[in-house]
Amino acid sequence: MTATPSDPIWATIRDEAKAQARQEPLLASFIHAVVLNHKRLEDALSFILATKLESSTLPAVSLRDLIDEALDADPGIGVALRADLKAVLTRDPACLGYSVPLLYFKGFHAIQAYRVGHHFWMRDRKPLALFLQSRVSEVFSVDIHPGARLGKGLLFDHATSIVIGETAVVEDDFSMLHEVTLGGTGKVGGDRHPKIGRGVLIGAGAKILGNVKIGEGAKIGAGSVVLEDVPAHVTVVGVPARVVSYPAYGLPALEMDQQVEVRSELEAIRESGVHRV
User: Which residue intervals of 32-151 are DSSP H helices?
Assistant: First the structure.
């Protein structure tokens, strides 16, 4: 089998996999099964997700058929898949190549499984979508409601104890660490979860609760609790969170800088070049 010439990411993954198989012969069978035996990135992904999410009542063979159905019906999943791979490679210093998140990173796996579940949710196959959500939560400790709307270019670093509610919206180029909740307050139904703008970075353990808007390019410090709207291009920390500074970069999710520096707005504008109203 050869890589599709029009898919350079898949070609790179296959080259990396071959090198890994040569370097670690004990892993050769594993690498051939999950990468080298497949013609497309989508095929490898469906094999990986099916083998991880199978259960006694839904075996991997049947589950893979369902995942393939979603991937074939919605090319947008493949586009987002590749954008997510690029996001992990460029933002996570522990990532040594495109093959690493595909093979080993559960945050990446959880996002792709969510995309499959969301596909079925939007086609009114809600029991199936909820089944997949449950299995993803059990296997990866990442609980994303299939009704949530997530963009592409996402990084969930470490990705343990993550919760994203049904009406949450996350725009493109987003990064967060473990133990983050995008949840409701428990007081109301309907549209009740956070709306996260492009390029937002959320630190470990932060909780964002209610139908609040987090503006583009905002940074949420680790351990913060956000209960109100956060303007674009500010840094908030604390319980409850308050504005303490302005990120040095227009889209802090792309830089993954967890430091919180208290600086004046004028200093921030000079450093970042971001126009603030």
Answer: 41-53, 60-73, 75-91, 99-104, 106-122, 126-140
On whether the CB atoms of residues 151 and 68 are closer than 8 A, the answer is no
Distance CA 34, CA 40 (A): 11
* Tokens coding 245: 């500074």
Alpha helices in the chain (DSSP H): 8-23, 28-31, 41-53, 60-73, 75-91, 99-104, 106-122, 126-140, 265-272
> 276: closest CA among 198, 203, 208, 218?
218
The C-alpha torsion from 10 through 84 and 276 to 223, rounded to 10°, is -150
- Per-10-residue mean pLDDT for the chain, 277 residues long? 70 97 96 97 98 96 97 97 98 96 98 98 98 97 98 97 98 98 88 97 97 97 97 96 91 92 57 47
Amino acid identity for residue 235 in this structure = T
Distance CA 53, CA 63 (A): 8
Q: Are 173 and 196 in contact (CB under 8 A)?
A: no
What's 267's DSSP letter? H
Please report the domains of the chain, with CATH numbers, ordered by start residue.
1-141 (1.10.3130.10), 148-277 (2.160.10.10)
